Amino acid sequence: MFSGLMANTWVAASIVAVIAGVTGFFAVLRGSTFAAHAIPNGAFAGAAGAALLGINVIWGLAVFAVGGALGIGALGRKARHDVVTALTLVLMLGLGALFVSVSSQYAQETYSLLFGEVFGVSRGEVLPIAGLGVAAAAAIALAFRRLMLTSALPEVADARGVSTRRTEMYFLIVMALATSMTIPVVGALLMFSLMIGPAAAARAVTARPGVAMALSVAIALVTVWLSIALSYRTNWPLGFFVGVAGAVFYLLAKVRGLSPSASGTVGNPVTS
Length: 272
Hints:
Elements: H1 5-29, H2 33-53, H3 57-75, H4 81-102, H5 107-115, H6 123-142, H7 144-152, H8 154-159, H9 164-186, H10 188-205, H11 209-234, H12 238-258
Helix pairs in contact: 1-6, 1-9, 1-10, 1-11, 2-3, 2-4, 2-9, 2-10, 3-4, 3-9, 5-9, 6-9, 7-9, 9-10, 10-11, 10-12, 11-12
């Protein structure tokens, strides 16, 4: 379980879990979970278009992910954020359907992009994923205070001259780049599960930003490690275990957060 290609699986999945835990924390805090779902799922259309043109699918993923993030951020200024996100997702999925229909040989690769090939990670894929993880963590750390302020107290942020719109665009682009590289490994659906489940569970337990983010990463790591081991032993889909684990952790966190002994643990992340 820990030798050969499986060693690459453990390393790559662990890096992806850290990326998901960090970005997912802010996605949940900012109410951007729909965007976290739309960007990676719609970006597969870029991979389909890249395959059709005969270029590396990573470039197609990155272009569509960033393009979708820019569209959501720009159009969201003049319309409801959820409506713009939905329309962006529909547009990208429509283009993906067109690209897939033109290229009949792309069905298997489309399936892998949706559900991932975590057990087929090569050594050459680990280094780019690690580099992306460092870049994403650095980008979040660089704008941590701005992200926290605009997430919890947007009116105060505007009064202090911190643009909520620019910060939102910044975060969407970071999330787009983080997901575009990890989709070929864990899949769009698995990445979304890892981003939202652990982060939501962490927020249900504590309102302290640093603790919540660390807990989000820890839960994401436990989720992927447990899921890989169970999938390896049972030959069941990895995504099944990740989805179930995410739901279980969240339910346990909600029960913990609602218990009398945990009263007062959830509140405003800035004032706590």
